[in-house]
Amino acid sequence: MKARRERLLFFGIVAAIFVLLWNNSVLVYKKSSRISLPCEDTFNEKKVEKTRQNSRLGMQFLKPTPSRRVKRFVYLVQTAQCLPAKLLNEQHIGDALRCRCDVAVLSFKQPCEDKNRTFFSHVEYLSRPADGDRISWSAGRNLLFSTSKARNVEYLYYIFMDDDLELSYNKAHTPPSMRSVSPMRSFENFLLQCKPAIGVPNYSTHHSSDIMIKKIKTICKRDHFNSSFVFVPIVHFDASLNAFHKDVVQHILPYPRKYDKTNWWHSQRYVIAASELKFRGQCYMFIPVNSVNTKHGDYPQNDVNANQVWSSIVQNLVSNIPQEYAKEKWIKEFIEDPVKHTENSRAICWRFPLNFSIKPFAYFALNQEYKT
């Protein structure tokens, strides 16, 4: 009898520990206990400090713990054959238990025959169309997008990602409490909380957070930017990792195929131009997560007369927007010199109220107080 009681006690303790761990890793935090980022006003130092003081834990994100039945993200990746193993480790996308996502992979050279891929139930491989030896970057991303849309799954974000991307935390701008989860989980939680039209990480090669902070101080005349801030508006952003909100993506994509044989960079210039015209000020860089490409592929990069090509892209986009908006002075300046505009746009100074509409040209209704 005593031995039976001891066994029951032992199994009871094990069951209690299991339930505790399960609740910690699966259930959503109660709304009252959520610790939010100051998404409403990036530049309001008092509001940021108040958020910090109101919590013993300081500024941090929700743990990545909603129901695994709800998939909020789809990652769209092109790779030569099989998805690099590092992208499925804990630092990046992760396995099916850690990621609230699906992963669509386009194998543009050879089909992936890796037997281990069956362990990743959230990953689906697509074969390239049999209409040529090579598929362009734009065509590949368009195929991934159309395939994911056909699933009829209500993803909140469509996340295009290069297969050679590496993520890490920014030492100078990462709250200690955020490091309890991986960089990718923190980026996902930034998307869920702040809901940018397009979200990007801190790309280290160009237009990094340090450069953007200097621009904000210069263009916006704001000197109080410090390590408390975790995101900034951005106009010029790299294509290596772009998260498109579901209410945005159909207004930006598909990527243009016109430049497939000359310069693949023009496709991203199109995305930048369309984003600036339709969702100005609502594209955000998440500062705490650094990203870098580890390889450089061989693809068309003829950048002769690049600014003229970009100007024609902007002009074509402007011809299809409502005329009452097309008459704006800044839009005319954007057409004349896209490089100058993207480097000096005052959209990086804007502050949107929480839950501001994510729809084309909504920024025209933004009160002037948020633009200064």
SSE topology:
Blueprint: H1 2-26, H2 45-53, E1 73-79, E2 101-107, E3 123-127, H3 137-149, E4 157-162, E5 165-169, H4 183-194, E6 198-203, H5 209-219, E7 231-233, E8 241-245, H6 249-252, H7 265-278, E9 283-293, H8 306-318, H9 323-326, H10 329-336, H11 338-344
Parallel strand pairs: 1-2, 1-4, 2-3, 6-9
Antiparallel strand pairs: 4-8, 5-9, 6-8, 7-9
Helix pairs in contact: 7-8, 8-10, 10-11
Helix content: 25-40%
What is the CATH C-level name?
Alpha Beta
Q: Name the overall outline.
A: globular
Order of helices and strands: HHEEEHEEHEHEEHHEHHHH
Major sheet details: 9 strands, mixed
Can you summarize this structure?
With 372 residues, the chain is α/β, with parallel strands linked by helices.
Q: Mind explaining what this structure looks like?
A:
The protein is an alpha/beta fold and 372 residues long. The protein has one domain (70-370): Spore Coat Polysaccharide Biosynthesis Protein SpsA, Chain A, CATH 3.90.550. Helix content is 32%, strand content 15%. It has 11 helices and 9 strands. Strands 1, 2, 3, 4, 5, 6, 7, 8 and 9 form a 9-stranded mixed sheet that branches. α7 runs parallel beside α8 (306-318) and α10 (329-336) crosses α11 (338-344). The longest helix is centred in the first third of the chain and has 25 residues, at 2-26.
Q: Main traits of this protein?
A:
single chain, 372 residues, alpha/beta, Spore Coat Polysaccharide Biosynthesis Protein SpsA, Chain A, 11 helices, 32% helix
